[in-house]
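in:
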């Protein structure tokens, strides 16, 4: 009877619709119309809930569209980490980058990844004390880490330059001492420190005479 054929007819119709949508996905992808790819994926997921290949295809399109929050929906922890790392690279707004790093740090990353995130986060703070706090946290996890030491030394050298421009010589001295404290074997920093001291001595003597 017709009633017995309806379920089979429905399955055929569903499969035909799914196949048509899959073809559309390829066409839209070739045209770079990623929002349309996402819409087609959503239609397929109504027909076939949880279809892994389509979930993955949709997520890939959302990442390319930088629709990060949607891309994170339903992702396991490992995938969330990958997405957040990618967002942190592509995100242009420093505040949003810092938010990405904070979310990553809250995930219990392995120490090597945690150090990288802390250094990257610190670099976004420029000349503020929060930058040094991030570098110090990285060094607590991995003492002697070259990247963290370099970032910290660069921070203090830049601070010395700013204070020098403002004529704050005692603060310049403090910055060079802090830089050397971060990396005592750094010959370049030692040379800058000695040059600064010689300049101060020379200026002092010239004032006396």
């Amino acid at each position: 009877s017709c009633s017995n054929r309806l379920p089979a007819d429905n399955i055929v119709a569903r499969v035909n619709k799914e196949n048509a949508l899959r073809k559309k996905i390829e066409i839209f992808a070739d045209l770079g119309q990623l929002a349309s790819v996402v819409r087609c994926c959503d239609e397929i997921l109504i027909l076939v809930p949880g279809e892994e290949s389509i979930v993955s295809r949709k997520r890939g399109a959302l990442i390319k569209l930088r629709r990060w929050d949607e891309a994170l929906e339903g992702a396991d922890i490992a995938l969330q980490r990958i997405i957040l790392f990618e967002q942190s690279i592509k995100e242009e707004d420093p505040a949003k980058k810092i938010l990405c790093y904070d979310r990553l740090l809250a995930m219990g990353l392995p120490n090597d990844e945690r150090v990288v995130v802390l250094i990257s986060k610190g670099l976004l703070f420029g000349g503020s004390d929060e930058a040094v706090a991030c570098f110090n946290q990285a060094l607590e996890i991995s003492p002697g880490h070259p990247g963290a030491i370099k970032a910290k030394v660069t921070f203090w050298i830049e601070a010395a330059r700013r204070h020098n421009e403002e004529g704050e010589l005692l603060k310049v001295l403090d910055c060079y001492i802090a830089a050397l404290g971060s990396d005592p074997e750094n010959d370049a920093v030692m040379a800058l420190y000695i040059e600064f001291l010689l300049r101060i001595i020379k200026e002092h003597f010239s004032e006396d005479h």
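note: The first helix runs from residue 2 to 31.
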